[in-house]
Design a protein that fits this description.
The complex is a heterodimer. By secondary structure, chain A is of the alpha/beta class. Chain A is built from 24 helices and 43 strands. In chain A, the strands form 9 sheets. In chain A, strands 14, 15, 16, 19, 20, 21, 22 and 23 form an 8-stranded mixed sheet that branches. Chain A is rod-shaped and about 150 Å long. By secondary structure, chain B is of the alpha/beta class. In chain B, the strands form 3 sheets. Chain B has a 7-stranded mixed sheet with strand order 3-2-1-6-8-7-9, sandwiched between helices. Chain B has a 6-stranded mixed sheet with strand order 4-5-17-10-11-14, with no helix packed on it. Classes of the chains: A alpha/beta, B alpha/beta.
């Protein structure tokens, strides 16, 4: 049993405010010398209970909150048997008279003390009288002195303290280069926060932040809600806080705008006293309830109520720096890499769309930006170093199809990861923002086009940065959450503090390791900030700009040179893109500067390129030109030679599946493809078709000849009378025969040159194809038929052979007569005439004869020429019964008209 | 030790572009990184030549009451051409460059205007000068010509100078607005004098070269655009404010063999004439919403372009170009 005297405090409520603070203060001072009890008459709300919680911590079971039945207080008093009961507010304000009468009965065994925190209660309405008043200010002592009841004035103590400004600014995340004004109190008309909002609005061009601490209770919603709707950007509303003291220490000025009116006045606000403890500059009204006690406080500037004067006085008190341009405080940073017309277009659209934010725009890039785009923005920072790195996680690209598998080691051919380059761009932008005084930045990528519906969100995000460090959205990645990096809003200082400015791959990977991240941007940023507090994360949206999206441009292109499964001497050039645009990828395969194979691929037509490269020991160069609008914006060479061939085997693999293995020829065959430098569409189609023979063991050689445009020679022509620049009309044709034009001569000459230059001694067969030749059957079938033909040709002594049609391709007129059927096969027959030269073949044993004739025999149209030299010399000619090659439709050089052929 | 050369540029003519390229090329081999700063957009080709490039659209000209100017008096008029208002934009360029170079941890920055082409040996001399400053723990290098004064004061050349960006940003707040710009009630303050007044108290920290930079780098072409060979501008006419006056004068002393002026109104050529050395002339216009473009070719190269739209907007600010008073 304690011998201490018992004091019971009765408080109307303990919702945060000045009165509960005084009660708390009393309890803190008395609890060691007395046995202290506290009864809360009503619990108004479970929120805003900072002081209530502290009292409960101090008193434990000695704290009671009354139930619905308020008469229970009488039983509690009876149990406690206090020596003193202290009413923390006049009972007239909150207690039922019947209960009050019982407590104030004359036969009571305890002393009754009262205080009040109100200055407006009419004195004549006081009906219950205690043994003593404990007033918190002289003002009420004077008013209630008429009752002749003893009183004492117990002012809330003011203890001088030393401010730890920088420390507390750091703790609260306040920018030390700005001035900070703090206001404390429940948002009510009496506390008059509206006046400070108005002052803040007028001081927007200065580096001043206005901080409001205090709850926004529902019963005062009518007051604070309109204020919040029009909150100036330099105002930060923190709500109720348990660290008011930190705010006071961190701030440069305490503002107390409470004015009150006839029936609703302050009394002796504790907030003023707390500020006085730090001797910090203050602005407040000099109310009569203060009885002049602050008149001599040098740190106080009294408010006048004249906004012009008060604004001026605040500037004098704070001496704030001006913001150069108010919009300079918030900057839009657009990160771009405008190397293609699509990206240039998107960058322009992005810049144009973000103009609507009315903020300055800074463009950052590792690729030079056009003068036109520079003129569209306010600032532009170019950094030449575009540091690409290897992937630590996304290190393979897979494309599994029905008939082949592709597995690319993304780190094999070149470094594919642009995360560090992107971070470097961000850093350049944010550092520049810092250097021009911008404290907040929005970072977006060039392919995010801002939609109007997102404009208010951007305003909101920038405002949020007064309280939060950043506004971001999280996205799903293979590793869990990641930061969505196409649009993010950061405080400049926070970004620079949290993300180290790393400029090389090694250090970046080390940093990733340190934080347990893979080295892709989303994971790296997420793992860096995931344990931070004060981040505003937008939920249920994949980006902070839901209407604008996450960008429309993918940079994902995959390219490599891969080993082909089961083919030791072959590699596959492979390209795949997810983009659909008008770019062209031109792949050339050359040796000793001579291009012997190529692919020209329009992305809009095909997003994938496959090209087999056979390595025979001599060096090969693979050149990949990426072309946009006729301009090569990226050209890369890959060398394949004996020293590095094995290194390509580490790049992944290409594997054929569900298909018959490529048929290969049983003979050594070379195919010469005779084209012109016109390189028209039908020649390109023809090249696509024929070049595939390389995958089946046939050597492919392309000859591109300038079209012959002069009058052909007549002295060595079989039909000199027919030599002409143009085709003859019908009458002349009947008279002289078919004209021999420059195109006829060009055709003949290309055959002659091709055969003489390419029919090597080690070949078993030479195939010669015209520029528009198309293989009509699947390649394996073609190779089968070539093999079979070669065997029969050798067996039967055929010296000139055609894979083309026995009829004319345009009208289907019969041309090749059957001279002799060959027994035990149904593939070919012996003929006396071959009309189409789109795909003909000569065996090795014809070479000498052929060379001799080509060098000495007079020329004619190529088909007539070959029929002449072979037919007139008793040579055997053969032709397939069913053609496997034809001509592509298109403009014929010889006939000078668009021709379509029988399919 | 990270060293950076910053070139302040405004390549708005082909000639200036060429000189800029030559300047970058002339300093390429001495081991510095390069940063370019400009208020005028720079071509992709030039961007490819440097490590960093900063473009800043905002170009606030030096206030009229604080700028130096060109004046000329004859028997019939006196005029003032405000042709030196770029001191403030130059400061803005410097500010951008020094702030970013500090943040990017450069130890020493050498700033050069975009009209200096260095010979090989002078490029090495520049590098040595910076290295000497670093080895002697100097925070800056300034050219302070012993034989030159401006309003009875020495100056620091701003054509080129070197410094530690961190230290410089600490001790010198470059003017960024008209209000900030160097001011003396009795006379306008040039950029060189402004630098000297602001930094002379720190002179012990600097390596001082007591001559003009063009006398130090004797084998180089320094300050190529130093002399304005040709004055041309559309001026406010105090005698008749509705009739602005295009004034031009060839001030070339013979270095340039042929100065040619081409004037176009709405793309129609109204004048195409050679202007001999020393010759001046003027032409009166009216505000009729026409466009006026004046091109000055020196020895066949387009070196100066002036473009005006003669409308109300121009009328309201034409006095910023200069004023001509006819007696």
């Amino acid at each position: 049993m304690s011998n201490k005297k018992k004091i019971l405090f009765i408080t109307p409520h303990l919702s945060t405010g000045g009165a509960p603070q005084v009660t708390l203060n009393k309890i803190q001072l008395l609890k060691d010398e007395y046995e202290v009890f506290c009864i809360e008459y009503s619990l108004i709300a479970w929120t805003f209970v900072v002081q209530r919680n502290r009292i409960i911590e101090l008193l434990g079971d000695n704290f009671v909150s009354l139930p619905e039945d308020k008469t229970s207080i009488l039983k509690i008093i009876d149990i406690i048997k206090p020596d003193v009961i202290s009413f923390e507010e006049f009972p007239e304000f909150f207690m039922d008279d019947s209960i009050t009468k019982e407590i104030y009965k004359g036969s009571r065994s305890y002393k009754l003390y009262e205080t009040t925190h109100d200055s407006s209660f009419p004195v004549h309405k006081k009906r219950f009288f205690p043994d003593k008043f404990h007033f918190v200010s002289a003002f009420n002592a004077f008013r209630y002195s008429m009752f002749d009841i003893p009183y004492e004035i117990i002012e809330y103590p003011v203890d001088t303290k030393v401010k730890k400004k920088r420390e507390n600014q750091e703790k609260l995340g306040l920018d030390p280069s700005w001035k900070h004004v703090v206001n404390v109190g429940l948002f009510t008309p009496r506390k008059n926060q509206a006046y400070l909002f108005e002052i803040a609005q007028r001081l927007r061009e200065f580096k001043i932040k206005f901080h409001f601490i205090g709850n926004q209770a529902d019963n005062f919603k009518f007051y604070w809600e309109p204020l919040m709707t029009n909150k100036p950007k330099n105002c930060v509303v923190w709500g109720e806080r348990g660290d008011v003291d930190s705010f006071l220490q961190a701030s440069d000025l305490f503002f107390f705008g409470s004015r009150g009116d006839r029936n609703n006045k302050e009394l002796n606000p504790i907030a003023i006293k707390e500020a006085l403890e730090y001797k910090m500059p203050m602005m407040m009204y000099n109310l009569d309830v203060y009885c002049g006690k602050y008149n001599t406080e040098e740190s106080i500037t009294f408010l006048t109520g004249d906004i012009e004067t008060d604004v001026k006085n605040m500037v004098i008190a704070l001496k704030p720096e001006k913001i150069l341009n108010i919009e300079d405080d918030e900057l839009i940073i657009i990160s771009t890499y405008p190397d293609t017309s699509t990206r240039i277009k998107l960058t322009k659209e992005c810049v144009e769309s973000f103009r609507k934010t009315k903020r300055k725009i800074l463009l950052v890039s590792h690729y030079p930006v056009s003068e036109e785009i520079q003129r569209m923005v306010d600032y532009y920072v170019y950094d030449e170093k575009n540091v690409m790195i290897t992937n630590s996680y996304y290190n393979h690209f897979y494309n599994y199809k029905h008939n082949y598998d592709v597995n690319i080691n993304l780190n094999g051919l070149e470094k594919p990861n642009q995360s560090l380059a992107a971070m470097n761009n961000f850093h350049n932008g944010v550092k520049f923002a810092k250097s021009i005084g911008a404290s907040k930045v929005m970072i977006v990528t060039y392919d995010v086009i801002l939609q109007d519906q997102d404009l208010p969100l951007i305003e909101n995000y920038f405002n949020k940065l007064d309280e939060w460090k950043c506004c971001v959205a999280f996205m799903d990645t293979d590793l869990g959450k990641g930061v969505e990096t196409t649009s993010m809003v950061f405080r400049t200082d926070y970004f620079l503090d949290i993300f180290p400015d790393i400029r090389n791959e090694f250090t970046f990977n080390k940093q990733c390791e340190l934080i347990g991240a893979q080295n892709f941007l989303e994971d790296y940023m997420y793992k860096t900030i995931k344990d931070e507090v004060g981040l505003w994360v937008v939920i249920n949206q994949r980006t902070i700009l839901p209407n604008s999206g996450v960008g429309v441009s993918s940079c994902s292109e995959y390219m490599s040179i891969l080993p082909i499964d089961g083919e030791d001497s072959k590699l596959m050039f492979y390209f795949f893109t997810y983009n659909i645009d008008d770019k062209i990828v031109h792949v050339r395969i050359s040796s000793n500067d001579i291009v012997y194979d190529e692919v020209v691929n329009k992305i809009s037509e095909s997003r994938e390129i496959q090209k087999v490269i056979e390595f025979k020991g001599y060096p090969i160069t693979v050149t990949v030109d990426k072309i946009d609008n006729g301009v090569i914006y990226k050209s890369t060479n890959y060398e394949i030679n004996s020293n590095n061939f094995k290194s390509y085997t580490k790049n992944g693999y290409f594997k054929y599946k569900n298909q018959v293995k490529n048929q290969v020829t049983d003979y050594k065959i070379k195919l010469i493809h005779l084209q012109t430098t016109l390189n028209d569409e039908r020649e390109q189609k023809s090249r696509d078709s024929l070049s595939k023979v390389t995958e089946h063991g046939i050597e492919y050689v392309l000859h591109q000849n300038e079209p012959f445009r002069s009058l052909p020679p007549s002295h060595n022509c079989l039909r000199p009378q027919c030599v002409s620049m143009e085709l003859f009309n019908e009458d002349t044709t009947k008279l002289l025969g078919t004209a021999l034009t420059p195109s006829h001569y060009g055709c003949y000459d290309s055959f002659k040159t091709g055969i003489l230059s390419e029919f090597d001694n080690d070949l078993d067969f030479l195939i010669v194809c015209e520029g528009d030749c198309i293989i009509e059957v699947p390649m394996n079938e073609f190779i089968d038929k070539v093999n079979e033909s070669c065997k029969i040709i050798n067996d039967e002594g055929v010296e000139y052979f055609s894979f083309g049609d026995t009829k004319t391709l345009d009208f289907g007129w019969h041309q090749s007569n059957v001279v002799r059927e060959i027994p035990n096969q149904d593939l070919m027959f012996i003929t006396d005439k071959i009309i189409g030269l789109q795909c003909i073949m000569f065996p090795k044993n014809t070479k000498e004869f052929l060379f001799n004739k080509l060098r000495t025999h007079k020329w004619d149209a190529a088909d007539i020429y070959f029929n002449t030299i072979f037919g007139h010399n008793g040579k055997t000619m053969g032709i397939l019964k069913d053609r496997i090659t034809t001509q592509a439709d298109g403009v014929s050089l010889i006939d000078k008209e668009f021709k379509t052929f029988i399919k | 030790m990270k060293k950076l050369i910053v070139i302040g540029s405004y390549p708005n003519t082909p000639k200036k572009e060429e000189v800029l390229k030559s300047e970058i090329q002339s300093l390429k081999d001495i081991g510095f990184d390069f940063m370019l700063v400009s208020h005028y957009p720079v071509s992709s080709e030039i961007q490819h030549m440097v490590d960093y490039y900063i473009y800043d659209k905002n170009q606030t000209l030096t206030p009229l009451d604080k700028t130096t100017y060109y004046w000329f008096k004859t028997d019939i008029f006196i005029l003032r051409v405000n042709n030196s208002r770029h001191a403030l934009p130059i400061c803005q360029n410097m500010y951008n460059a020094f702030k970013l170079s500090e943040i990017k941890d450069y130890d020493f920055v050498f700033f050069s205007e975009n009209d200096n082409i260095f010979s090989k040996e002078d490029a090495v001399k520049l590098s040595d000068l910076v290295d000497t400053a670093i080895s002697e723990n100097k925070t800056g290098v300034f050219f302070k010509p012993h034989n030159y004064q401006d309003n009875h004061s020495k100056v620091y050349e701003t054509q080129m100078f070197g410094l530690q960006p961190k230290r410089f940003n600490e001790i010198f707040k470059l003017p960024l607005t008209g209000e900030d710009f160097f001011h003396n009630p009795n006379y306008p303050v040039s950029l060189e004098l402004g630098f000297y007044n602001s930094l002379k108290e720190y002179e012990d920290e600097f390596l001082i070269v007591d001559e003009h930079s063009y006398n130090y780098f004797t084998n180089s072409e320094i300050n190529i655009f130093r002399m304005e060979h040709f004055i041309v501008d559309l001026l406010y006419n105090s005698s008749n404010e509705n009739e602005p006056v295009l004034f031009f004068q060839n001030r070339n002393n013979g270095d340039v063999k042929e100065c040619r002026l081409v004037a176009k109104v709405n793309d129609d050529i109204i004048a195409d004439t050679l202007v001999q050395p020393g010759v001046w002339s003027y032409q009166v216009f009216r505000y009729e919403n026409q466009t006026l473009r004046v091109e000055i070719y020196m020895d066949g190269t387009l070196e100066i372009v002036r473009e005006y739209t003669l409308n109300e907007s121009l009328r309201n600010k034409i006095n910023e170009n200069g004023i001509i008073d006819f007696y």
